[in-house]
Amino acid sequence: MKAVIALADGTIYEGRGFGATGATGGELVFNTSMSGYQEILTDPSYKGQIVTMTYPLIGNYGVNPEDVESSGPQVQGFVVRENSAIRSNWRATQSLDNYLKDHGIVGVDMVDTRAITKHIRDHGAQNAVISTTRKSHDTLVAMAREWPDMSGLDLVRGVTVDKPTLWSRKGKYRVAVLDCGVKYNILRELEKREAKLKLFPADCDLKDILKFKPHGVMLSNGPGDPDAVPYAVATVRELVERQPMFGICFGHQILGLAMGGNTFKLKFGHRGANHPVKDMRTGKVHITVQNHGFCVDLDSLDNAADIEVTHLNLNDNTVEGIKHKKLPIFSVQFHPEASPGPHDTLYMFDEFMASVAEFAQKNP
Fold this sequence. Notes:
alpha/beta; 7-stranded mixed β-barrel; single chain; globular; 10-stranded mixed beta sheet; Glucose Oxidase, domain 1
């Protein structure tokens, strides 16, 4: 089944369709991970995006019910060099092809993903349409140009919980999660550390969070432009001096905005499981998981009261972590929970829960 990828700048790639049939659009991005495609597909931070995998063989270990980061696939589409027709793993319950069909996700393979990646690196991430239908190239390019741009787009409302939801009843410490599209493994790592978790909609009333009497607040990852969710920024600003806070990825950007910083869109973003980040406090370099297209502006933090930069990306020197100089509040742009990726920075959950435990002793 023939498939076409049409970019907004008029570039066309032809390949073979798999998964669902039809046409879909979104921002075309690339991920450099060698494995973990199921976690990538189900990561809510990819809402609104067509993901291209740079590793050439995808689907070879199939799909299973455990390795998911949300209720189902979140991507707009999936592009790979070769979708393996054979799955070989004792945990696999179905093929990648059938998984995408079941969830209505259009896939494209037998396409030059290296050329696509180089094009995005040179020209930046941009909107595209992938299609298995018989539409002309000009029609598909026009569709890509009309697709909503990622800048200014609020995608959080489509992935956050509808109402305050108790995730786990067990746990010694109450942790409120401002859910902007949280990955399950963030919740799993907090649960391991005795956190009783309650998820709150990103646009919730502050009173709902305070009623829970949290010992700490987690600001989750999520999709889209952080500037497009002022309601979440306002909530975080109100929470700053109340209890310990830990932000991850989108949550890091929200905290940066709440503390007086600015954000901007990167040319093609950081997505993969092999990005080097330097801890400015220790000098250590960690290999991290990344998935973001926006970033906190380093220069804007000069005017942010009591905020210091703790981590830098060694590929482009962008901000990867900040902390409050006086309060137990910090955030990172990368994903310490991994899934997929290295576990170099799992200790950050220990640091957060230590401050939560200390707060709980004083405020039971």
